[in-house]
Design brief:
single chain; alpha+beta; 2 domains; 8 strands
């Protein structure tokens, strides 16, 4: 009987020990599962955060700022007005500046250059300008040297747009008269004289390269009666 009780006691003790071991093992297993789940929960947010950071970086790298090019407006130049000139010569000054090769005609229909001009000192010398046709003019000058002797110059040329006639074909003659008015002597001094005559507001001036006869002398146009 005593042996049976001892056997039962040992059996119960063994069962208790087995149950305790099983409970301990289960407890450890549960603790291990809890720790593993906690670790997974800790890792998952980290991975999600890392994934979000990577996605954000990719979006930042993918999205490039749009470049806008400023279009500069080029100002349109204002239209310029072209001055028109009247082809008709309406004033004497316009006629003097006209270098078209035509005769210089004023408003009265008269040649501006043709006519007679007398010196403004003694009024003894006389310059006569004659239009030979088109734009060519002949010039004759007489200048008394004494009561019996007179100098004569003759040349021709064309007036330019400034009212200047330049010549290189001047012939000078010295003529002596007798008491009855007849020619006593007619002498040619040269035939290649140079110089020019220049029109001005009062009349004209004459520049003689050989004799300088009319230096500082003005000639005023003689009005025809």
């Amino acid at each position: 009987m005593r042996l049976k009780k001892i056997g039962k006691i040992l059996l119960v003790a063994g069962m208790c020990i087995t149950l305790s071991a099983t409970m301990i093992a289960c407890s450890k297993k549960d603790d291990s599962s809890s720790e593993k789940e906690a670790a997974q929960e800790t890792v998952e947010p980290t991975e999600e955060a890392s994934s979000e950071e990577d996605t954000s970086s990719e979006e930042e790298e993918t999205e490039e700022p749009e470049e806008t090019t400023a279009i500069e407006e080029t100002p349109t130049p204002a239209p310029t007005e072209t001055a028109t000139t009247d082809p008709e010569v309406t004033t004497e000054e316009d006629a003097a500046n006209d270098n078209s090769g035509k005769n210089k005609i004023n408003q009265k229909g008269e040649d501006m250059y043709a006519g007679s001009y007398s010196d403004n000192v003694a009024g003894r010398s006389l310059i006569t300008i004659v239009n030979d046709g088109k734009n060519s003019y002949s010039v004759d000058i007489s200048w008394p040297n004494s009561a019996a002797e007179v100098y004569y110059w003759h040349f021709s040329g064309e007036f330019d747009g400034r009212g200047c006639l330049t010549y290189n074909n001047c012939t000078k003659r010295s003529v002596t008269y007798n008491e009855d008015g007849s020619i006593g002597e007619d002498k040619t001094e040269y035939s290649d004289g140079t110089g020019y005559i220049k029109m001005n507001d009062e009349g004209l001036s004459w520049s003689d390269d050989q004799d300088h006869t009319a230096d500082d002398t003005s000639f005023i146009k003689v009005e025809e009666e």
